[in-house]
Write a structure and sequence with these properties.
heterotrimer; A mainly alpha; B alpha/beta; C mainly alpha; A: mainly alpha; globular; C: mainly alpha; ABC transporter involved in vitamin B12 uptake, BtuC; 14 helices; 70% helix
Chain lengths: 347, 515, 315
């Protein structure tokens, strides 16, 4: 078999294959429910109602989507430049650490929120700066270095929480002291459990979209990602663009950790992120790396997670079904997107 | 052709081969036969369908219609393995060698069952040795292919086919990368092969070579056979008109008095890149109102020289002078701002970004100038109208500025790159293989634009492997061989054969002596 | 300092080094085969997890130990088939597919574990591979404990490494695999199938990765935990680079790495361990891997066609 590019794919093709990917994922979900001995339709229904069925469920989904929007944007920005940042998890924790460092009394002014947000972005950016400099200076593959940094960062957080950052009132649990009220993100609407981190995520997604489409930096990032050789020939400073991309990407992931601590949890613990950094990759890919698509994809992914938790409690199908479905969706979707552009021909 | 050859058995028969890629008919009912001991040339312009036809014969592609018969047996479609087994050997235009493996490994690859327990290296070595002697193809079997010269690599490719006892050899543009003298050696090998009863299909667009080596010539145009002639009863002019469907004429170029030196290389050297030599003490002047031609086989330092002009590199030693000053802070961006216009060798991978539209490709070099952006914000409206100007001014055939450039033909892509390079009115123009792979119409257009640029006072450096092109267009020319630059030759003061000797590296000793 | 010397001259230390190195060797060989054929397999982390889980579960359900190894290998090959189908004929991003396969394999293991053992609170145990008692050799002083007290699976790991080197460098198949990673067009022009070679390499390589994972549950420990692979797969990717894509050097790299790992575990028990936070020791393997990558960055000869998909149409 051979893949032949299609010059001008039809709308049916552009929509049909992604739809097929979603259908195939649903089929896998059905199969998994059957394997688990549950009624497939009831299971799917319970996932849906678990994610969207009540005001509480919707708020939970929105809250879960917030860090995913940030990490999804971080990954999307980096992947656009073919910078394989798999370390959003580490960058997220770096941001979370800054939220605690500055939010537990070190700063008392009303400026504590913006300052800690900037510090979180800076910390996240610095965590990615190392791997990207190793890539541009020495040619070290950033996939493995960013992956390994995730493990190192978790151990560092564990050290902080058992040592210098340990909450003296924590009764032995490895967690940080709580943030002071001025360092907490307010709720969007009084009485509803949804903080301004979500609003900020939407604003940031729009900002990233503007950067990518309207600025010279966005043009450079896309050019470097598509064809670094042509970008270099045309006069773009390829390595500098990669570094700038990394700072932006790491900064966005840092905001994810900051928003979780300052908005949702109020302190730092080792279970702050159930893999938001990794899920960000799925979000970004499902969004085709489009910043506004990231918002939708993050809502979808969050819905699957929240819905599966609820369904698992009710139907007894293990909650890991969510990860399986998302991995399946990811693989089907990248295949479907390829098939919108090429056709398989004989010989 | 002798009487006996004419009656010799037919070893290969292609019958009404048809193949379409999307809307383009690359091959349209092409029939062809080849007899024992015969050399048939397949002649045609770029894009005429020669390579596609041979890829079908060899099984890389499956034809939509038609059949291939080798020694009376029909060949299953899409199976290179079957073609190899039937005795067809192919020397691809882009060599299919693994650089990190040895010559012997490359030759024996795939010749033994994959599940065989070991490789019979000594027997293989002996066989390669015999073949090398018999056909005049000297190579070191234990050398890594990555370290070999282009000519040596071609010998390995031919040995690969002979090692498999090929009875039919297909050579796709085999002389494109050779000096005239190396090409002569190749012809000697081919004559030895045909004397032993092998048959050869020789793909080319160079008329004099076809006349020199082939018995018969099949001419393709737009995927169809437009003529089949006995080479003994024809001449260059007839073949040329068959090939392009009309009279062929190079753009006329009258000689003018050159202007001041705009760019100068003073004893410039650059490091070697693996097997490709860097520049060795090159001294070169580019003058206003002059086209300076750089002849030579690819891989003799052209890339290093082009990179210097384009701003991608600085000399390791010696000086690169811009007008009267030596450049120190040098980059593509700096080169652009100093009035260097660049047409890169590889328009697909270096000159354009395939999935960007024409607007984005048009401003790839100038996006940071005030015309297209302010304080980091792009002005896409200005960019789009600029793209429209190029499209109109340079006759770029396309649906519009929002078309992705990958959908354009090579000629139209090159016109956009040309328009982009010419728009700021460059004083110095680097044209690296500007017409390679283009059709005749696009070639004439690009060449006339280079002449026009010269006439308005630009210094043009034309790098080309095509001697006809370079001798036709250049006011002065140099030869680059193994990183060394020959003295300047004025237009008409040197013959192709003499250029060939310089390309092969002869004469440089004398030049050094004289200097 | 004397602590370190005491550790280094103890037989139990070297026994641990070889034990820690074994799964790394298996998985590194798997990754090396894939990369030599031109495919980066980032599914390795998840494939090790699925190998650890399926191997253990098969034995827990009553299969013999070698049966568990075979089941793990088959499971790994299945995920290798998935990976290679997407990355070879379809030429999809090896990064994205690899991470997707890792996520899918990991979640499949977790899902199946919860499904099959819904009630357990502490992980059940199996009887793992016992140390192989070799006549005479196992009774040697020092060496007997350090080297000749390993399980059969350890010996298998070293045998696999030898076999991989032999096949890669001494057989037509190995030549074809290496050529596929250097220049697939050369393979195609000689009548061999690039798709077949690459898919085959990824499938076999994934099988080995899974056996590497199974080593953890069937030989090193006797239970399955969710986090047990814990980045070992990524470390193996680094070891392939460190070994310059050569089996012998990769094995040496794995042993060197295991020595540092065994050392850091033992150092935690010393005065030094009381002085420094234990997380510093635990982070050592990851830091070491990054250092290895930096060290080899300019030297290694990367297979020229690594991560370059091959499509016959784009000649």
């Amino acid at each position: 078999m051979r893949l032949e590019p299609i010059a001008d794919p039809s709308m049916a093709r552009k929509l049909g294959f992604p739809a097929l990917a979603i259908a195939a994922t649903m089929a896998v979900a059905t199969l998994l429910a059957l394997v688990a001995g549950a009624d497939p339709f009831a299971t799917l229904g319970q996932i849906a109602t678990g994610a969207l069925g009540s005001k509480l469920a919707i708020l939970e989904t929105l809250n879960r989507a917030t860090p995913l929007i940030f990490t999804g944007l971080a990954v999307a920005v980096a992947f656009r430049a073919k910078l394989w940042n798999i370390g959003a998890e580490a960058q997220l924790y770096a941001g979370a650490i800054m939220a605690v460092v500055l939010g537990t009394g070190a700063l008392g002014s009303p400026l504590v929120l913006p300052i800690s947000a900037l510090a979180a972005m800076l910390a996240g950016a610095l965590v990615l700066l190392g791997p990207v400099l190793l890539k541009t200076r020495l040619g070290v593959d950033e996939v493995v270095t960013t992956l390994l940094l995730n493990f190192i960062m978790l151990l560092f957080v564990s050290y902080l929480l058992e040592g210098p950052m340990k909450d003296p009132m924590g009764m032995g649990w490895p967690k940080s002291p709580a943030l002071i009220p001025e360092a907490r993100l307010p709720r969007i609407v009084d009485g509803l459990r949804l903080h301004w981190g979500f609003g900020l995520a939407l604003i940031v997604a729009a900002a990233v979209w503007v950067i990518q489409t309207r600025t010279t930096l966005g043009f450079e990032i896309r050019a470097v990602g598509q064809n670094p050789e042509a970008a270099r020939f045309a006069g773009m400073p390829v390595n500098a663009v990669l570094v700038k991309t990394a700072l932006l990407s790491g900064g966005l992931a840092g905001l994810a950790g900051w928003s979780e601590v300052a908005g949702l949890k109020g302190n730092l613990s080792l279970d702050l992120s159930p893999g938001f950094g990794y899920s960000g990759i799925i979000v970004a890919m499902l969004a085709l790396l489009h910043p506004l698509g990231v918002v939708l994809a993050a809502l979808f992914v969050a819905g699957i997670f929240v819905g599966s938790d609820a369904m698992s409690r009710a139907a007894g199908v293990p909650t890991y079904i969510a990860d399986m479905l998302l991995a399946t969706a990811l693989l089907f979707m990248v295949l479907a997107i390829l098939m919108t552009r090429v056709r398989v021909v004989r010989g | 052709m002798t009487q006996t050859q004419a009656e010799a058995e037919v070893v290969l028969r292609l019958d009404r081969i048809t193949k379409a890629f999307g809307p383009v008919r690359a091959n349209d009912a092409i029939s062809l036969s080849l007899r024992r001991g015969e050399v048939v040339a397949l002649l045609g312009e770029n894009g005429a369908g020669k390579t596609t036809l041979m890829n079908i014969l060899f099984g890389h592609y499956v034809a939509d219609q038609g059949s291939v018969e080798v020694f009376g047996q029909s060949l299953p479609p899409g199976a290179p393995r079957a073609a190899l087994a039937a005795g067809v050997g192919m020397v691809h235009q882009h060599f299919t060698l693994a650089g990190n493996l040895t010559v012997l490994d490359n030759i024996t690859l795939g010749t033994e069952g994959l599940w065989a327990r070991g490789v019979g290296r000594s027997a293989a070595k002996a066989k390669v040795g015999t073949l090398s002697r018999d056909f005049g193809l000297a190579v070191d079997t234990e050398a890594r292919v990555g370290r070999l010269s282009v000519g040596e690599r071609q010998r390995v490719e031919i040995l690969k086919a002979l090692y498999r006892d090929a009875r039919i050899l297909i050579l796709d543009e085999p002389t494109a990368v050779l000096t005239p003298q190396e090409a002569e050696a190749l012809f000697a090998t081919l004559r030895k092969a045909t004397a032993r009863g092998l048959s050869v299909i020789f793909i080319s667009h160079k008329l004099h070579e076809v006349l020199a080596i082939a018995d018969r010539c099949v001419v393709l145009r737009h995927g169809r056979v437009v003529g089949e002639v006995d080479t003994h009863g024809t001449d260059k002019a007839k073949l040329a008109s068959l090939m392009v469907g009309g009279e062929l004429s190079l753009p006329s170029a009258e000689v003018r008095a050159p202007g001041p030196v705009l760019m100068q290389f003073q004893g410039v050297s650059t490091p070697d890149r693996g097997a490709v030599p860097g520049l060795k003490g090159v001294t070169l002047e580019l003058r206003a109102g002059q086209i300076t031609g750089l002849a030579g086989v690819s891989g003799n330092g052209q890339a290093a020289l082009a990179d210097l002009i384009a701003g991608l590199a600085l000399p390791a030693s010696g000086h690169l002078m811009l007008r009267t000053k030596a450049v120190a802070d040098w980059s593509p961006r700096k080169a652009l701002s100093e009035g260097v216009g660049r047409i890169p060798e590889d328009r697909h991978h270096t000159g354009s970004i395939a999935d960007f539209d024409l607007t984005e490709n048009a401003v790839l070099e100038a996006y940071r100038t005030p015309r297209f952006s302010r304080r980091g914000w792009m002005d896409w409206r200005a960019a789009r109208s600029f793209a429209e100007q190029i499209i109109a001014g340079y006759d770029v055939r396309c649906p519009g500025p929002d078309t992705r450039i990958r959908l354009l033909s090579g000629g139209n892509m090159q016109k956009l790159i040309l328009g982009r390079a010419m728009a700021p009115g460059p004083e110095i123009i680097l044209a690296n293989q500007p017409v390679r792979g283009l059709d005749v119409g696009a070639i004439a257009y690009v060449q006339s634009q280079l002449i026009a640029a010269r006439d308005r006072g630009a210094a043009v450096l034309l790098i080309s492997e095509d001697l006809d092109e370079i001798m036709g267009l250049s006011d002065v020319l140099h030869v680059l061989s193994q990183g060394r630059l020959s003295p300047a030759f004025a237009r008409g003061s040197i013959s192709a054969a003499e250029l060939g000797l310089w390309m092969a590296g002869q004469g440089f000793g004398d030049a050094r002596h004289a200097a | 300092m004397s602590d370190i010397i005491d550790i280094l001259i103890s037989a139990s230390f070297w026994a641990a080094v070889i034990r820690i190195a074994s799964p790394l060797i298996l998985a590194t060989m798997g990754e090396l085969i894939c990369e030599r054929a031109g495919v980066l397999n980032l599914g390795i982390e998840g494939i090790m997890v699925i190998g650890a889980f399926t191997g253990w579960m098969a034995v827990y359900q009553g299969m013999p130990l070698w049966g568990g190894v075979a089941v793990a290998m088959a499971a790994g090959m299945l995920f290798g088939l998935l990976h290679s189908t997407l990355t070879v004929p379809f030429g999809l991003s090896q990064h994205v597919v690899g991470l997707g396969v890792t996520l899918l394999a990991t979640s499949t293991a977790s899902f199946s574990y919860r499904l099959m053992l819904p009630e357990v609170t502490s992980p059940p145990k199996i009887n793992p591979f016992p140390p192989l008692d070799l006549p005479i050799l196992s009774d040697l002083p020092f060496l007997g404990e350090a080297i000749f007290s390993q399980t059969a699976l350890t010996w298998a790991a070293f045998a696999v490494a030898g076999l991989v080197a032999l096949v890669l460098y001494r057989t037509p198949l190995g030549l074809a695999v290496r050529a596929a990673g250097e220049n697939p067009a050369a393979v195609e022009a000689q009548g061999l199938s690039v798709t077949g070679l690459r898919m085959g390499a990824v499938i076999v390589g994934s099988g080995l990765m899974a056996v590497g994972g199974a080593f953890l549950t069937l030989s090193a420990f006797s239970s399955f935990f969710f986090e047990m692979v814990n980045g070992r797969g990524w470390i193996c990717v680094a070891l392939v680079v460190f070994g310059a894509w050569k089996p012998g050097k990769a094995v040496l790299g794995a042993i060197l790495f295991a020595a540092f790992d065994a050392l850091q575990i033992r150092l935690q028990q010393t005065d030094l361990g009381a002085l420094l936070p234990y997380q510093l020791f635990l982070a050592a393997p990851y830091v070491l891997s990054i250092l290895a990558l930096i060290l080899m960055s300019r030297r290694a000869e990367v297979p020229a066609a690594l991560m370059v998909p091959y499509n016959k149409g784009e000649r």
